[in-house]
Amino acid sequence: MIADNYLAHTADPRVRKPEAATGSPRIEEEIIKAIQDATGNESFSLKAPRRIEGPVDSDRLHTLASLIWSRVGFQHLSAISCVDWLAEDEFELVYHFWSYRDFCLVSAKTRIPRETASMPTVSDLWQPALFFERDIHEMFGVVFEGNPDLEKYILSDWDGPPPMRKDFITREFAHDHFHFRDYEPDWDELVKGGYHSNRGEGGTDV
Amino acid sequence: MEKTITQRSAWDKVLTKLQKRSLWMLHYCTGCGAVELPPTMTARFDMERFGIMPMVTPRQADILLITGYLSVKTLKRVVLIYEQMQSPKYVVGFGSCTINGGMYWNSYATIKSLDQYIPVEFYLAGCMPRPEAIIEGFTELIDRIGEGKANSWEDYYKNYEFYRKNQEHVFGTIDTRTDIPDDAKYFKIGEVEK
Ligand code: SF4
Questions:
Q1: Alpha-carbon distance B98 to B102, whole Å?
Q2: Share of residues in chain B with pLDDT > 90 (%)
Q3: H/E run at residue A47
Q4: Which residues are near ligand 1 (CB < 6 Å)?
Q5: pTM for the predicted model, two decimal places
Q6: B13 in a domain, yes or no?
Q7: Nearest Cα to B7, choosing from B125, B115, B148?
């Protein structure tokens, strides 16, 4: 059983053993029930030991996040991931909340339309969300309302469309944007006198 | 007395002879190929026997080693570093990523050929080149410096506009704080307009 293997890894007596890992799925059930009672959302379920997962409406996500945040132990928003479902014309945002006390991961999945992709921020609850949201905004173009800083992050000189969207053809972009070296079969003759770029032969404009 | 850089006096010959055995290398290790440098520098292949040693600042370095892929963002830093270096300077494109994009050939973020942005003295092919290849390349460079043929750096002064245009195409204008036309005047190379 996975939980047993997990125990073997945390044989350190200083680590407080999570109840869930001792074989009883009590804590998971408790969390699922808390979500159900507070938000009326019955779709959260146990996917694997200590892995809870479920869909949530985009307008209810912040309520759910506050609930999870207020539960002791869930100090950690470990990631927000974004999936582009091109055929369904939707983005899926997955929020991963991790509890250091219960050793339990709650993944809340929510879908938003691609054209008007916007979401209320959760950075008021977890500060690291500022960066996750900024990154998703840059790569997918999702707007996070309430996030104070959605400036360029990694792609500082970027002026194209958000590159991680599935309808962004990276190959075409690269071909339009960068200079590609022509294949030069006599390259070893060329390099003997020092390498010179093929500037003179019309292949110049990048 | 007027003298161009390509006319080699006896003094120049002495100079290059001394220069070729004292090369300081600045390695810009953004790419994966950088892991081949420690064995090249240390006891096994011992680069120091050729007079090549790592240097920590661009101002005192002769060789700029670009060890792999460059994203547009890092290219900007490379141009800054390159312009800070004192001429004569030699850029080494290390690995196929600098030659034609390598395995990142269709990436939206990396440049595909380094010599469009700064002049490259030579490329080391391979993904990644082994220390033997690096040593081979450097001995060739030493020979070429001795013969006074390693002058790709002059190209930056001669065709500054070309390089500048390509740089601006990918990351816009930057103020590098280096007066290239003035440097060109000092070396008596070409007519450069800013
Ligand atoms: S040429 Fe190969 S080893 Fe070098 S940076 Fe590119 S992928 Fe990495």
A1: 7
A2: 41
A3: strand A45-48
A4: B 31-33, 68-69, 95-97, 102-103, 127-128
A5: 0.79
A6: no
A7: B148
